[in-house]
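thread: overnight batch results

M.L. [08:02]
morning all. the overnight job finished for the chain we discussed friday. pasting input first so we're all looking at the same thing
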Amino acid sequence: MRIDVLTLFPEMLEAPLSASIIGRAREAGIVEVALHNPRHYAHDRHQVADDYAYGGGPGMVMKPEPIFECVDAVRPMAPGAGRVILLTPQGRLLSDAIAAELANEARLILICGHYEGVDERVREALADDEISIGDYVLSGGEPAAWVLIDAVARHVPGVLGSARSLAEESHAAGLLEYPQYTRPAEYRGLRVPEVLLSGHHAEVERWRREQSILRTARRRPDMLRAAPLTPEERRIAETALAGTEVTVPLLFRVILPTDDVERDVRFYATVLGHEGERIAPRRHYFYCGPTILAIVDPREHDAAAPVRPNVEHVYFSVAGIDAAYAAARRAGCSWLEDRVRKRDWGERSFYARDPFGNPICFVEEKTAFTGGGRA
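M.L. [08:03]
and the structure it wrote out:
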């Protein structure tokens, strides 16, 4: 696999790309990484790669000519045109599934933004994909490029010493990884679990699997609905989630209608931060805690069993309301409140409509009002 990186600051990447697993993969010829500076393709003697934004505003914007012409020069350096990826906080949120997807490419060309970003024409006419590593802003795309290269390279055959290492890591199987221990067996009064010292391999594997489920339930419950669990493992997860037995019915599915499943799925994948699961050609599920958000094209159903969407505002409870608002803006709502607001009843929330006009609302988890009927 070859990865070309366009960066104004190649020195930021030279050291990390020469160390550890990536460094060894490069030395072995499994992964090839080349750095290119767009400044070398600027048209003036000072090699200026940025300029003021049309319309005014603070900061500088990376010019289109050096980026386009750098890509034009880089492409003939190796076989294949390469998939051009713009690293931007407005892109798809990087996940293990996306990393595995990109690892199937023979060649990637990464563009690192800087300053206030890149000229929009780079996004419109040059980039094949846009990737973000999180809902925060960096000084440039170089740290994101390093994260992406590391995540992708681990999926390239031969980069890791053991294929099992990749399969057992956090997120690879839809669960967080189990706790790890090494020598000594006891340190400062803290002992390694006895099962790991037993030599009973089947019991060790059973313990590790259960610990992965419990850790995921406590730390990332949003991952559990899509995880491949047996009925017994599902009960373990639900017990960890509930803490006590659930004695009242729970809303478990909300159905939103659409005439374009793919476009709506892209919207909610960006807003919710995970890819969900395709259940049928015209039905896609997103697992939001204990509730399923179903994106459904009603045309897949016959008159005897019509879809009856419940779309009088679908409410999501989120830990970070400000990050959710930023994600909604990035995803492209057909309508969005101008800011997060505090309601008269105490909730911090914002209302929006998805690209098809379905009304949705995001409420800050710790302020969510769930009614006064519970003890």
